[in-house]
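ENCODED BACKBONE
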Amino acid sequence: MAWSLLKKFSLGVSAVILVLWATAVGWSETNTGVVATIGMVGVQPNTETPTPEPAMIIPQLRIRINIPATKLEVYKDNVLAKTFPISVGMLAHKSPVMHNQLTQLIWNPSWIPPPDSDWAIGLKTEPPGPRNPLGPVKMPLEQGIRIHGTTKDSSIGRAASHGCFRMHNKDASALAWFIQQNDSDKTDDSYRESYAKNRHRTHVVNLLQPVEVDIVYEPVEVANKTLYIHPDIYGWAGKRRDLVLTAVSFYGITENDIQPEFWQRVKLGGKKGTQEFPLEELITPPHNDTTQTASN
């Protein structure tokens, strides 16, 4: 009898221990049996989905260079943000028409004579500083082409470079800083102050995403309801009359709508400077036929 009581007591203790363990680890029934899940008693697992951090929104920047207009435009999210005058390649060193990407800015660059250029024979490397022919910043593209500052302000607005696009130094700095503020992780004003203060030290800024660069040759263009006729500096354009008719056709203007005097004004403009014509001045005024009737 003592043995029977001892056996029942042992079984009872085992049952209590089993119940306590099951409570501690947790039991759940499935259609395939009983499954134990380890966890703290009374604590529910965290099933909430963590809120992701908002993605950084980078504005879409684009640069458009029109060679005959000697003009650089920068667009932000397809809206014109800034316009700058530039110098383009001279006749012996024409700037190329191409699509390109800008991926970095180089503040206070060194100028290294191009090894394959006859015009650079005998010239020496120029370190960063006020005398550097690239100015305060350069923006490298393909084919050795760059957008940069200059020590020759008088060349701006003309075909005077060796293929690159020169800008006034203040304009080159403004363009580069605008790009950096919108497309890099170095946006604090202290960076710009450091570049200006340490003119003999080069700083490279990699952009977060490439800036698309379109270099075009369009001597005739329409913007803001105005026709612009630029000098055909490289002689690539073809007949100016055909270019004008093509440009204004997008605004519903045909050759029959244009005043004859307009073509004479275009001819007199020649190759010097850009001519501007509001579209409404091109159109021949309609003839108003009036019929007199006798009054009663």
User: Anything to note?
Assistant: DSSP finds six helices and 15 strands in the chain. Confidence is low (pLDDT under 50) at residues 5-9, 15-43, 290-296. The chain has two domains: 61-216, 220-281. Helices lie at 2-25, 169-182, 189-197, 240-249, 260-269, 279-282.
